[in-house]
Amino acid sequence: MRAGLAAWLLSMLLFGCGTEARVLPMMVEAGCDAAAGPCGAEGEALSIRFRLGAPVRPLSRFDIELVAEGPSAGRIAQVEVWFEMADMDMGLNRYRLDARGKGRWTGAAMLPVCTSGRSDWRARVRVAEAQRTYEAVFPFRVKGR
Ligand SMILES: [Cu+2]
């Protein structure tokens, strides 16, 4: 009984509460800027290429493109992208991408101006299939302010 409770607590810690699918972090290639060219990321059964713009400027619409490969690529149910800054609340900038077939997903977004004049953003990409959700965080820089 006690062992069962411990196992339950451990699973809550590892996979989160309730029915939310577990999130698997992906390894993003070093030194990439998703607004300067495609950035790759590798996960358990999925690899993706992610690209923004170009160009990416505040208050100006830009394209988002993700191309998925690997065993999970054909089972993707939803792709969402959050745009955020490290250590700064930039509001909720969340976008859902549309399936274009053959593992390709696209969308468009617009970012606010940073009141601190920073240009270093990051895109938190969540790729969800039935059993699991992959997450990759891609750094990028906007042009101008
Ligand atoms: Cu900011």
What does this protein structure show overall?
- The chain has 145 residues and is mostly beta strands.
- It has a single domain, classed as Macroglobulin (MG2) domain (Immunoglobulin-like).
- It contains 1 helix and 11 strands.
- The strands form 2 sheets. A 6-stranded antiparallel β-sheet has the order 2-3-4-5-9-8, with no helix packed on it. A 5-stranded mixed β-sheet has the order 1-11-10-6-7, with no helix packed on it.
- A hairpin with a 4-residue loop joins strand 3 and strand 4.
- The longest helix is centred in the first third of the chain and has 14 residues.
- The termini are far apart.
- Copper (II) ion binds next to loops.
3D shape: globular
Strand content: 35-45%
Biggest beta sheet summary = 6 strands, antiparallel
CATH architecture: Sandwich
The SSE order reads HEEEEEEEEEEE
Task: List each distinct ligand once.
Answer: copper (II) ion
CATH superfamily: Macroglobulin (MG2) domain
Radius of gyration: 17 Å
> What is the average per-residue confidence, as pLDDT, rounded to a whole number?
89
- Between the first and last Cα atoms, what is the distance in angstroms? 59 Å
Widest β-sheet, arrangement of strands: 2-3-4-5-9-8
Class from helix and strand fractions = mainly beta
Domains, number: 1
CATH class placement: Mainly Beta
List the uncertain runs: 11-18
By DSSP, the count of extended strands is 11
* Percentage of residues assigned to helices: under 10%
CATH topology: Immunoglobulin-like
Helix segment count?
Answer: 1
